[in-house]
Amino acid sequence: MDKLGKRTMLLVYALIIIVPMLTVIFSTLKTTSEMYANPIGLPETLNIENYIQIFNETSMGTYFKNSVIVTIVSVFFTLFFASLIAYAITRMSPWKGGIVFGLFTIGMMVPAQVNMIPLYSLIYSLDLTNTLSGLMIVNISVTLPVAVFILTGFMKTIPKELFEACTIDGANNWQVYRRIAIPLSLPSLSATAIFLFVMHWNDLLYPLLFITKDEYKTLPLALLEFQGQYMTNYPMLFTGVMIASAPMIIAYIFLQRYFIAGMTAGSVKG
Amino acid sequence: MKLKNYLIMIVVLTFVFLAACSAGSDEASGSGDGEKEISFIHWRGEDKEVFDELITKFEEENPDITVEMTIYPSEQYQSTAQTQIRDGEVGDVFTSFPGAQFKIMDKAGLMEDLSGEGFLDNFNKDLIEAGQKDGKQFAVPYQLVFNQPVYNKGLFEELGIEPPNDWEGFLAMNEKLKENGYTPIAFPGADIGAGQLMNSMMMNNAPDEEIFTKLENGETKLTDEWWVKTLTQFKELADKDYFQKDSLGTKHDGAIALMAQEKAGMLASGSYAMASIKEQNPDMELGLLAPITVSADEAEYEGIHTTTFMLAVNSNSDSKPEAKKFIEFLSQKENAEKYANETGQHLTVNDLEYESEELKSTAHWMEKNTRFHPRYLISSADIQKAVEASIQAVIGGQDPEQAAKEAQQVVDQFVE
Amino acid sequence: MKAGKSIYLFLIPGLILYLMFFIYPTLSALFYSFTNWDGLTADFDFVGMANYVEIFTKDSIFKKAFVNNLEFMLFVVIFQTLFSLVFALMLTKNSTASIFLRALYFFPTILSSVSVAFIWTYMYDPNLGLINKLLDLANLEFLTMNWIGDGDIAIYSISAVQVWFHTGQMLIIFVAGLQGIPKDLYEVAKMEGANKWQTFRKVTWPLVAPAATIVVAYTTIQSFKAFDLIFAMTRGGPNYSTEILATLIYNTAFRSYRFGYASAESVIFMIVIAIITFTQMRLLRSRA
Prior knowledge:
The complex is a heterotrimer. Chain B is 45% helix and 14% strand.
């Protein structure tokens, strides 16, 4: 293929990404009629009215806080528990380790819709609907398989001699885990963290199932419900989209390389 | 760290979790210093302001009760309200649609029996039957709605059109609107359109009010003449471009906008849309009409009515007396009048004085021979969906016989 | 050297959560699939295979959703793999421009499905949407369509969104694979006078095949899980044209309150995914 054709293709696809994004960003600064008249152009004035309105009319601050809490706690505990398991798998006899590994990885094959119904009844009977902790517990449980998979894969590459040398020096398992396994797995831990971060931040299904009270809603769920409130008032909907995506976008700009590595690790292994 | 420390850590973590859980539920019940908070949930986003004012008034009259109102989009309300109410955490007072939703709520035992409550006397006995089951009043319908097209009176007068009383006349009227450059019918096909217009389209094709009960018993089929004819007529409207372009992609508020901008002659939803239209275009004069799908002498019904927005008290609530107080408050003449006049809704409450123009101009529909919203007499949500889907199918170009056949397959799945 | 018995303690916290909130519900789904539980009341009866029999003999909507799901999957797998491979071939080098473009193409991946659904609901809006507006401006009015309101094309319109959403992610996997190909292999191919296609066929493809296996497998699973996107865009309509298994299961459970039946649907769903993934792995492995 000649250079020109190649460049045109790349440019066209770039536009397919950029144009919708710019439309979103610009229209949050426009009124509805301004947007319909001129969807792609720059806004006439720098009007942040929509942002003010959305914070006044909805509990945006609460949703934001909930999303932050749920995401951070879920990511932390998933990583912690998964790294413990991954470490145990690498240190157990291959036979037993294999069983544990298999038990967790089989979970990656199960789509969320399969167990959502019993999961809903379980959470309901434990009185955990409309709690952030219920949401976190489920988040942690369902992302353990992929986290265990990635981390085990990595920890297996750590030379066994390192663990053993440490053990001979009298260190117990916890010390080996803390002093050897964790520091050496940092790259894969950070990659997994980002993968989980994106996944938990954006999750819709579990909040949709378990959360009905406004004060416990996370951003994606709240956003979905804006559809009822603002209907086809796209400038308002997009203002919601911008606020909900802002942390991801900012993090992506600064940590781009890690994001790409993390999301790819997740998909390669997941 | 030793093994012991590790065990301690697990215990601590468990506690952290449990603490977080109980913190969550503490907040949820959140009732400090003798004050009761009740949750009121419904689907009428357009009534938010009026309800805010009424709630303020209620809270002034009852200083120990606060009301937290949550509004859901109606499409979503139909699918998720049951689950939410079941928790008992929201919806001390909730609303229900008649029909399939009411049936599910009843089956799940979500509604407190309100029979014998004093406030029932404030309502018109004949209009609250939709909330009864086995002689008990589980929910009280609040609104009286006419689910038939709204039309632009001014435009009709200008073009010299009278609401027709037969199918020929209805087609001719549409043709005339089209010739003059108007979209005859603004059809909100992406959400409520099919479920609304089907009622008036079928009311005379199947004058039997039991028709959907019979369908669910297997005594009649969607492939029978009454439904195929209805679908054929829907298709005729679509094929002749009497609906706006891309009608299946238009949502209700989009269709309202077409109407308010006077681009369309009719809006195929119901009387509840009139207030929203007037809000966008206060000078418009609006009326109601229903398509008569048969010849004038065969027509049995003139329109469709529903009693809906059925107020109920959550049987899992721990503030039932407060919840009942709120329903009673809404049923008081003064408050009901405020609600009716500001939202443009007729109500099931007795002896109200309607002041707003649309309410007055449509009040005569109460005297007409209207039929209860047939779609709400379908008790299975799956069948309801299949019936609506067959309308979307013919508007999308499918053959009526085929669409009816496919919908009947779904019905067959549920008929023993 | 063994790690001692205390190693089992490391499994405890994760294993408890996983067994309780993942394995147990999954097995329960299997259990409930043999009942007529409605999810609202406490009692239910065992109905044996009745739910499964009903799904296979009577349920026309399940068939529709299944076919839609396959169409959706095929469209997404073909185009997402093709686009990401082609762009990866163009952007293999680590020049500033290609690093920038890779980051740009990747960008949609970090958004939530709900956000993506809003953006594209607007883009596709027949009257207000950007796509039809641009087509009008370009005098291509005959191409304007009711993208997600027309039952004949809605499923493809949503597939295209899915492709937009995740092509960038798959591209990175291919780039990683391509960058692992030793340069001298290309030089050998050049010396032997291979043309571009032959080079691709004989050098690039065999080495990029493992990456392709991953991309195809992952895309397949992803396309079966596109619940969020469809739920926020069309909820399965119009006329069931965008109903896929995931949305159907949700509706059966939480709209029709047939939890037992929905569980049977979900068990079949799981088996279908397992079969497809397994076959794919076999096929792609034997090719590579």
